[in-house]
Write a structure and sequence with these properties.
This protein has 140 residues and is mainly α. 77% of the residues lie in helices and 0% in strands.
């Protein structure tokens, strides 16, 4: 049984492939890509993967709101995938915010350089604070 951290890494790899294939205008089947990475069905992977793909436009807009000097489409596909996972978990799941941010940062430490890791952390921190503010305002 894989840990949620390992499953997030699998989702990142699938998203990476999806982003590359979309950019190249190559047809693909998300289910086939998923089966190449994961031998058995997993609800957590499905929720993350399909949730991110369903909300990709909003996620990218949110990322671009906080990325300075670098819009999402200028980041490499791995970093895009990591940011998407982090923002999706912050905004659309019950994953504790600290866990969502930490997991994205850990993935980034493994696959990106230190500057990108700091940038991803900063973007997710901004998204987190914006969400907290809107929750606080909503309860007043």
């Amino acid at each position: 049984m894989k840990s949620r951290s390992e499953l997030r890494e699998i989702v990142m790899k699938i998203l990476y492939q999806v982003f590359i294939l979309k950019e190249a205008s190559v047809e693909f089947d998300v289910e086939k890509l998923k089966k190449e990475q994961l031998e058995i069905e997993n609800d957590f992977v499905n929720e993350l993967l399909y949730g991110i793909l369903d909300h990709q436009k909003e996620i990218v807009e949110k990322a671009n709101q906080y990325l300075t000097n670098w819009p999402m489409d200028r980041l490499n596909k791995v970093d895009q995938a990591i940011i998407c996972i982090g923002i999706y978990e912050l905004l659309y799941t019950k994953t504790p915010s600290i866990v969502a941010i930490n997991e994205a940062v850990e993935l980034s430490k493994k696959y990106s350089d230190e500057k990108v890791t700091k940038m991803i952390n900063a973007v997710l921190d901004e998204v987190f604070h914006e969400k907290e503010e809107s929750l606080t305002e909503g309860s007043n």
